[in-house]
Amino acid sequence: MLGLTTQQAAFILQGAGWTILLSLLGFIGGCLVGIPLTLGLTAKTAAARSLSSLFINTVQGIPLPILMFAVYFGAGATGYNPPTLIAAGLAMTIYSAVFLAEIWKGCVRAVPKTQWEAAEGLAFSRFDIWWLIILPQAVQIATPPTIGFFVQMVKNTSYAVVLAFAELTYSARAVNNTNNEPFLIFTIAGVIYFLICYPLSNLSKRLERAVAIKGRT
Question: CA separation (Å) from 210 to 168, 173, 182?
């Protein structure tokens, strides 16, 4: 890369690799935790809805860097010092789960209520209603915004710099401390973020248009 040694360029690219890995860990973990949260938000019982909403509202009120500190130093207080990848990944899992649950709740509610009522009238169990009728439609509606949220996850990995985790932003800053060429180095980092995020953003928009067109037919 221009203005960088081979070793520095490799360090920045390695940071990009860690960024992708952290994004995937946080996103996949968020999906796994987000599913029960979504079920809680859409449950018939008020207690389940209240508990899910309380957890979501609490996490949403905490900035992601603070959440990372809380996970890392909270674990340290118990005598276990987690690797920064694990601490950052767990924090991003919790963070992504609450936002994905809100996205998916809206997608579930976007399925016409008449379909719930018709299925109940045909004596379908609640599990069958979810699995056979609601879920396939909700997944189709949810796919574009879920991919769009993953783009935000990629960019949010930059907050892991507070734990000195060597993702892309940390790597760029470390190289800049040696070269003192911030415009060049952070432009390179920005281009790498763009190359990761743009295809995903474009895919999200295309799927959103496809779902909108299908919904009108």
Answer: 33, 40, 41
